Amino acid sequence: MRLQEDVIRLILGLKIKQLRSEKNISLTDLAVATGISVSYLNEIEKGKKHPKPSKIAVIADVLGVTYDYLVSLQLSKRLQPVGELLRSNILSELPLEHFGLDISRLLDLFATAPAKLSAFINTLLEISRAFDLRVEQFYFSALRSYQELHDNYFEELELEVERFLELHQISPEQTPSYGQLAAILQNTFNITIETETLNQHPELAPLRSVFLPGAAPRLLLSTGLTEQQSAFAVAREIGFQVLQLQERPYTSTWVRVGSFEEVLNNFKASYFAGALLLNRDRLVQDLQTFFELPTWQPQYLLQIMENYRTSPETFLHRITSLLPRFFNIKQLFFLRFHHDPALDHYSLTKELHLAGLHNPHASFLNEHYCRRWISLTLFGEMERRKQVGNLEQPLVGIQRSSYINSTNEYLVMALAQPSESQNGTISIGLLINENLRRKVRFLDDPAILHRLVNETCERCPALDCLERTALPVILEKQLWQEQVMQTLEGLKG
Q: What pTM was computed for the model?
């Protein structure tokens, strides 16, 4: 939104509505006293219209304040947090329409209960400062909420991919190769692909690709990429071009996040790439056949992935888009873990939760994730493969994970590629319910390991756990608090 103009309108509307509420003046009364129509006054209060100075002066007189007070951006102490929010990058860059929100509706709440909402907003700001939550973390959280709102399936992007395939006469029965996509990028969009430039700059080594706009645009690819990774990078760039996404990042790995629009457009281009490389109708049929197998057959799952010549991350993330829409499997999560062998530290670097399944989730508190999850135990097998030099065959694991002291149980499938330069596992978890039992025949295969799990060691009551790496300090504090409350209740009696 055009920050200065919109903030001026919003604050003016907020002030008028608050003053009118304090003086118990209805919109009709204000209209009669000022000679301004009710509908126009309503638009002013919603921040959609900004009246001429002469009309502002009349409104100020009726409300008993000065003209300067109404046009000033200064707010009372009670409303200062609201003003801070209105002037922040969050509201100026977050496209509220994607979430079905209207800024005027928020203004209505501000004016109705300004003190309470100001206190609430101030609390949120204090929490963000206390936990050092950066703006980009908010953007990525907002993106995950946007994906969850749509069950991570976007029909308009699927249709764009279909149109692209038809335009370039690519059969949906065949996965486009890197060569095909590179030719389209160069011949249709006049973007040259270079594979040596990144190697000349050591500081760019962590980047898989870089896009350089200009009169002669270039896509720089790292020489360390597999053909699968190169194909995705080119398909993603094609997505940016086809969807005409102007505000965008120019690097594959985030270096600096400028706005929510960048984050959202990057997701759209990546979604386009995934849909282009893994055809919707073909993959749905393959998954139906896979789920109908009477026993768990990991090689069958790997063969499906190999047929699409794609990476574990692209493969499983694409599945999360199709399961809710075509299998009614909506209660699921997607996780990407990285492991630092030197520190023996695991970090959750990417996540998506549908239908409120928020465990495990990324922790900013530096807690130790439960090592009973297949997502983490697969790292051990990856290290063994590396020691014997078996790096080509992808790893696959499966586990039925039941939360300790909970009725929730998940079927978790994990994949890893030992040849990847970074240690990482990708997994999806499906909540086990009647719908999943009907859809997945091999669910009760005794070959599938069943384990009790928790979120982090710090919150886990399983004191006999052999994989425990930290004491349950958070759980112990919670138990102590409960005991104190019970004792106090007893003393009252």
A: 0.77
